[in-house]
Every structure is written in structure tokens, then in C-alpha cells.
Records
---
Amino acid sequence: MTLYVSLFKPFFFLLHLTEAAAGFDQSLSGKLSELLKISGPELKKGKSRIFYGIHEDFPCVAVVGLGKKNAGVCGAENWDSSKENIRQAVSAGCRLLQDLEVNHVEVDGCGDVQSAAEGAVLGLFQYDQLKAKKTTKVTTQLHGSADLVGWEKGVKYAEGQNLARLLMETPANHLTPTAFANIIEEKLAPHAERAWIEEQKMGAFLSVSKGSEEPPVFLELHYNGSPGSTQAPLLLVGKGITFDSGGISLKPSSSMDVMRADMGGAATVCASIVTAAALKLPVNIIGLAPLCENMPSGKATKPGDVVTARNGKTIQVDNTDAEGRLILADALCYGHTFNPRAIVNVATLTGAMDVALGSAATGVFTNSDWLWEQLHKASVVTGDRVWRMPLFQHYTRQVTESQLADLNNIGKYSRAGGACTAAAFLREFVTAPHWAHLDIAGVMSNKDEIPYLRKGMSGRPTRTLVEFAAGLAHSE
């Protein structure tokens, strides 16, 4: 069998070629430049050309426009436009070659090999595990030998996000709480089951799992990247509802299938820790993922029931579809036992977050300016943005004024400020000075907003969490 190797050649506006593309063109005595000049109008950002038979080693060459040279960080957009342009261009070129059933692609580093690697690996991912006809599997490598370390780093960042996408996309009957835990256990850590959860008096978590035949699982991950350090660990907590029917407060049937991804918080947290381990980041991280289904049955929690969380606070459950905050409450209480340096919880928590920000950014509620700055700085690098939301006492009063218990799991004005009252509820289970709640409901899936991700579950913001952890590893 002959292995055909294809070269992906992005270049800059007005035939300003990247360094690798210029070298390739020189090896062809300027043939690539000439073909570009006569092949049609100038290539704008994201537009492409394919040339065949111009090089004996690379019978198929894709060329994609990168946009303006040295675009840099854009304050208005809160990301590095150069990095985003590279991710988008490389993704487009790789998919173009994948559509031609090319199975190996050499990628131009475009001056930022990590971003190029991310674009290639993220762009080629497609969930087709349950289909008879599979998408062509494409391997990628950096063209030339420049900055192979940066390339491998980008590959690991992208593979981490792809792991989250894989978990989020898998149908709920294939990814039960136990199956989720087993997948992560193969990579990192053991898990605890119902007896341990009961021993920990996690009444809020158990109340959500009661309606399902699937047993709950509490997944605890420890990554000791700096074993000799006296630095307290970073704690990441992810909501792990592997299917959310709404329970007795049943959701509408339309689009309920996407609730297979209601464990997106757990998926991104676990994937980011797997990635941190792959990168050997010098930081200690603990991950917690309460995993269960939220289903209606004769055993399910009923609206108006009162349950007791691990810290002894009672909760009136007026809406069983506001279940994510219940399982996170117990996980946050347990997480404080590790005296963490900072706590970040991640959850597809509220439809209100989707209404507020859509898919542009993850909403962040935090009691710490320092923690916000670290998360924001990381998101500018990755292009997977975050946006700070209010955490006013105004919202706290709406969940603490409960008729039957210490707290109510929904705000007294129901839908008004729903993302904010959910965050206020979670804060009632936090005493740490550096805590952030990331509501990822709006960024859970991708239609066409992120060009280098195919339609489907997005795995966001895995790369931002990894970049954030990497930043902590090198800060006081």
C-alpha cells in the first residue's frame, strides 16, 4: 500500500506566505505562488485552494488564508486573534483533505505551532463510534522540525477537549454513571459508590439519584504533579448528570436528547485533569464528579420535598429539574476537606445562562478577583472565552427565603435571574476565599459558531481549564 502524505499550507493575505510555505514554494521554484496568482481572487481569511501534483512527495496541497498578519490580542473580542485565525485555518485545511480521504497530513506551524496543532486535532474530531460508515481517520504531524514541544502541547490540549466531546456526545444508555467512571478510572482514578455516598451524608446528591435504576457514583481524581510541594491543591468539581429528564418536574420532550451532555461539567473537569497529567504540569489537582441520572419514578424526589446536604443545611426542592446545584452542593462541601488553594466548579447549570450569553463565552461567578483574573487570562490565550457575572446578595435573598427549609433550590421569582440565583445557591456551600462557578450551559454544544469544531457537543472550556491550571503551576 502506498502512503500518500499531504501538506497543509496556510498563508497570509496578499500572498504573504508563512515561513514554512515560503520554503515549500522555493523548493518548487515559485510554482505555488504562480498558481495562487492565477487560480482566482485573493484568498481571504478561511478561504482555501487545493492543488494536485505540484510536488512529488505531496500530491495534494491545501492552502488556506490566515487573515491579517500579526493580528494579536483583541481587547474587544477578549482573545488572541492570531491564534484563533490559525486554529480556524488549519482546521479548514485538514477537513478539506479529510473529505478527499487523505489519511495523513503534514501541517504548517504558521508561526504558532500549538495553535496549529489544536486546530488540526480539534477540527478532525467527529463522533461516529456508533455508525457503520466511519469518517476517514487522519493522522497529523508538524511539517519540519521547528518547536516539536509546542506541537505536542497543542495536541494534548486538543485531545483533552476531544475526550470531553466524546463523553458529552455518547448516548446516555451507553454512558451511565458507572460507565463514565470506568472510562476515567482507566486513565486516572478509582471511584466510590452508594455506600460511601451515604456514609458521607450527601443527602442532596442522593435525592437526585433516587428516581433512577442506575446507581450513583462519586468520582474522585488526584493528580500529584508537584508531590514535594507545600502548595495546597487546586480543586475542580464537575456536575455529572449523565441524563437529565428533569425528574418529576419533567422537561419538554423536544431536544431532551441533548441532555445526554448534562454531565459536561464532569466531562470537562475530568478531561482537563487527564490533560494536565499528560502534560506533566507541576501542580496538584483534585477533581470531584458526582455522577447520576435524574429520572422520574415512584422513588423520585417530589416537588416540595426537603433534603439535607452534607453540611447540615436543609433544602426545599421545589423544582426537581434544578438538580445540578443539589449534587454540586454536597461535592463542594466534601471538597473543602482538602483545604484547596482554589475551587472551580463547572456545570451545564441553567438555561438562563444560555439566554444571557449564548455560546460566546462561559459565565463565571466568583468571590475572588484574583481567581477571575487567572481564568480570564487563560481564556484569552485559548480563545475559549469567559465572562464575569454578578454574585450579589440580591440573589442570595431569593434562595434563602424558603418556606420549609434553610434554602430553596430555585429563586423566589422563578425564572428571573436564574443563572444568578443558581450561583447564589452554590455559594451557600462555599467557605473558601477563592471559588468560581462556571456555568457552561450556553457553550455546551456547537452549531457553526466555532469554525474549528464540528456540529455537536463542544467540550468547552477544557482547554481554558488546562491553561488556567498551567498558569497556577507557575505562579505564587
---
Amino acid sequence: MFNKFINQMTNANNKEERRQRVGILSGRVGLVSNLFLFVIKLIAGLMSGSISIVTDAMNNLGDSASSVITLFGFRAASKPADKEHPFGHERSEYISGLIISIIIIYVGLQFLSSSFNQIMHPTPLNTSALVFVLLIVSIVIKVLQGQFYRKMAKEIQSNTLQNSAQDSINDVYITTMVLVSSLVETWTGWQIDGYAGGLLSLFIIYSGIQAIRDSIDDLLGKRPSKVEIRQMKDLLDQYDNIVGYHDLLVHSYGPNQTFATIHIEIDDSWNLTRAHHLIDCIEEDFKHKLGVELVCHLDPIAIQNEHDTAIYRQVKAILKDFNLKFHDFKVEHQTILFDIVLPDNPQLTDDALFMQIEQKIHEQIGNYEVKIIFDRLDLLKEV
């Protein structure tokens, strides 16, 4: 029943429109539920005089503000590309996530101060059965809210909604701690409300810092996952008529705006028409199967030339001793040119490595001029 309702509410003609509808629905549900939680917790906090309950209530008010920002973020992200923003506006979703994180930290700092005052000047609580009932109801609502956010985040692969889901689960722990501290103080008389509020405030601040880090990573542009790289590599491996590929670079301008470039090695005896048809097929496969806008660069390789092939094998054997991969191999007169894919933490400097490789080539192949480009950006080296 629940899944059917969600599908009806978010039914759309395309992936981008569905993403917008899911995001907006999530923002509206979050806004209404968090405002309701704020009201009942504020009532419980004022009735009991508990700083930890009031802190928890204000945390839900901050969640309501976050839901409003989520609404605006998804609306802005759905705007089509324009002259000033040719790659669209989908990173607006990341900006909304960053603003939400800042609000979370601000709320945490404000109530850390209030909790400290409660510790220094404790006042007894005035709890009742109604206060405990309100807290239990709020825990149930937050559990349901977290499940809803998690389903929506999975539906559209949204880090913003995933953060909201985690925040809801955190709130379950927070309100449970508030409930337990209130029960302890009611039953034992130990005035621990300020300490509970302080712990909650620190937890809120920590979650805000974590969320800021995730949002900044998205805005700066983070590397694709190994699963995504493996999918691209598996797709390229289906083309038996290419010699090889390298220098994969991926750029993301939002959840549905991924661009990539790659160098495709082909037999240099091919004519331009055949080569162009091949890369058109590869780019079309990336678009329809992976949703990636790929641009291919052609690298002709002289695989039919026996002299060059013999040198290639000798260079390959030399570099194997260094545990290095290479590409873009060419022999031009008395010059050998190639790129080396460096590991993340090379043991030698570029100059020292070049000198050792050059010496090996002179000893084993001949007096060739050696030109090497050291490549650190190729994502394929990890898979």
C-alpha cells in the first residue's frame, strides 16, 4: 500500500522529473512531520522544564528549516541548462545539503551553551505521564520518517535525502536518551538533564560536521566509486576490436549529469570513417547503458609494424620489473615515446624513475631518445 502510494505521488515521464517529484515530496513530508514533532516536544519541554527536551524540540525546528531548504534545493536542481549554466543546476541539491549542515551545527552550539547553564544552575523537572507519552510518540514518528527518507534516497540515489534519513535515525537515539534521562531524574532525583542536553548537543554538532564534509566533497567533485569505474571498464572490454584504452576522467555536475573522457587505442591502419564509427558506438553505449556523456580521443597504435612491435615488447618487459603500466606507445625514428601510469605513492621521484628506465632502454634496446609522460590521473589504474 505504501509503495503504491509513493509510486502514484512520484509518477513521472522521465528520470529527472521523477527525481524532482521525489525530492519535493520528501521535503513536504519532512516539513509537516518535523513541525508536528517540534510542537509536541516543546509542549513536553515547557511542561517539565527540561532543557534536554527543549533542545530536542529545537533540533526538530532546525529539521523543519532543513526540509524547506530541501524543497528549494530540488526545485533549483530541476531547472534546465541555460547559457550561464550549460551543465544544468543539479549541484543546487548539494548546496542545499551544505546549508542544512550549517543549520544543524548552529542549533547544536546554541543548546550546548544552554545545557552548560543547566549543569551550572540545575532546576528540578516537573514530569508527568503526558510528557512521557509525547516523547514516545515522537520516537515512533521519527522511526517512520527515517524509513521514508531512506526509501526515497534509495529511489533516486540522493546523498541529501540519505543525510536526512541518518538525521532522523540520530533523532531517534537523541529522543530516547532524553526519555531515559527524564525517567532517571523522576525516579532517582539525580539532576542529569543538563548533562543529557550537553551530550545531545555534541552529537548534533558532530552530525552537522559530517554532513558538511559530504556536501563539500560533492561540490568540489569527488572521484567515482570503484563500482562505477568497473561498469565502464566492463563495457569497454566488450569491444574486441580496440587495442586498449586509458586516461579515463569523470566529471559530475549533479546526480544525473555525468561526463567522461577516455583515450581509445586503435590499429593505425584503420581509415578515419571506421575509427569514427567505433567511437560513436562506444559513446552511445555509455549514454544509454550508464547515463554517462562520454567523449573519446583516438590513439593510433602501430600494431602491424614488426619493428615497433618488437620494441614495444622490450619496453613492456622493462617496465614490468618496475611494476608499472604504460600506454600511448610510439616509435618515431630514433625516439621512443610513452606514458607511465604511476601508483598513488611512488617510491621514486619522476626524474629518478626516468633515469633508471632510460638506462635500461639504452642497455637492452639501443641508443634511442626516450620521452616519458608520467600519468597520475587515470582512474582505470585502480580496477
---
Amino acid sequence: MKKILYVTDVVKLDPATLDFACYLCNLSHSKLTGIFLENLRGEARSGKMLKETALEGGINVQTENVEELKEQCLADNIQLFKDSCEKRGVTGIVHRDLGIPLEDVVMESRYADLLLIDAATSFSVAKENVPTRFVTDVLADAECPVVILPESFEGLNKIVFTYDGRGSSVFAIKQFTQLFPELKEHPVVVITVMEDKNKPSPEERYKLKEWLHDHYSDVDFIVMDGNVKTGLLDSLLLRDKDFIVMGAYGRNAFSTLFTPSHAAPILKLIAQPVFIAHQ
């Protein structure tokens, strides 16, 4: 892996999320490309709202003029991004995207190995829940795997693969493994929540075990009966400092474990990094 994207609104960059972004870059010997989205063609937020958002991100601006405010935030946040990368020994590159945020991100993802985004990223006038509509659209449309950034990063304990026997969940596991061969010595936990209507066969589970043991040195399997949504939440909420891997995220349905989109409540409640890939 060589090119990782870090997506942010020019008005608000959360410096805490750069800890994990730079960790991944150092791990994979990749550069970090900051995608600064300005939303010039569709900005609906007022100068007052943008000023409040900037203040939440640690930038105290004096103006409520939208153009002037964005320019100041852009300059300050680009400098913060560059300083953070330099401090952590990462090559940081900046792309200033001036169009429609979702279209810009999808185009950028077409030519990248991995995309990183904060689940709270939003360009909406209204207050939004996490993950925001913009983030769920990115998850559905991105043309490379996406990682939802953790609120803070203090090290990595285990890798958690969620598995339901479908091709798309296996695809996500394989994508993660190919992108992060450096994590082969980390302990792996595979979580399967079994529902009567959708159970991986014993043969499928054996083949996954065989494949995983070819790539990881320490693999454990947890199989539970019950509801997928509540079972996953119960399992994942108890975890700390783990990297969670999930399958395809779509607008209409999660085509792997989650129907329709059980990942949304999980992303609301857990503070771990979450890797999501779709075919």
C-alpha cells in the first residue's frame, strides 16, 4: 500500500484522528494525502454556523464572511496537517477539492489504496447523528476500502473480523489482509453471529480457518447464536483498542452481515477503528 487518503472539511479538522492516520502510514510505509473539502458549489451553512464549527475545531476566527472564514480555516488546518505528519515522520500531501464533496471523495478514492474519514464529518445545516449522511454515502460509493477513524488512538491490540459466510464478508477480510501484511503477528478474532436463516456451513468455516492460518499466527473464533445486530453490538462494545473489519456497506442494505445497515448503530456506539470494504 502506498497512497492513503485522509478526508476532512476545511472548516474543522480533528487533530486526534491524525494519530491513527499516521500510525497506518508508518505501518505500511505510505504517504498521507489530505483531502480538504470546501463545498464551494453547495455550501448551505451560514457564516455563523461555520464560525461555531471552526471554534469546535480549535480555530478562533473573527469573521462570519463565508469565503474569508474558509480561507483562514484552510490555511490553519493545512498547516496543522503538515505539522502533524512531519512530527510523526509521515510524508503529507495536500489536495484542495473545491467541488461537491461526495463527488470529489469518490473520484479521489478511485486512485487510492485506502480512505480514512471521521464518522462525524458533515456539510449539513442540521445537526446529524453519527455516522452522518455524508459518511454513509462515502461508505456506499467509495471505490477503495474505507476506515472510520477512532476518536483517539493509544495502540492496537487485536484485529476483529466479522464473518457471515457470504462472499462480501470474505472479500473484506482478504482486502484488509492484503493491505496490512504488517499486522500478520497481531492476534485475530473472527466473530460470527449465527441466525437460522443465514448460517455459514461447516465447510465454509473450515476453509476460512485454513486461509486465515496461512496469513496470521494467532487466530481465535467466536461463534454465537442469536440476532446479528444485538450479538455484534454486545461483542464489539466490550472491546478496546481493536481494529474491526466489516463487509460491504450499501445505501439500501448491508450485503454482508448487515441488513439493512446494522453497521450504523455500531459506528455510533464504538470508538474503535472500523475497516469497511465492498466489491
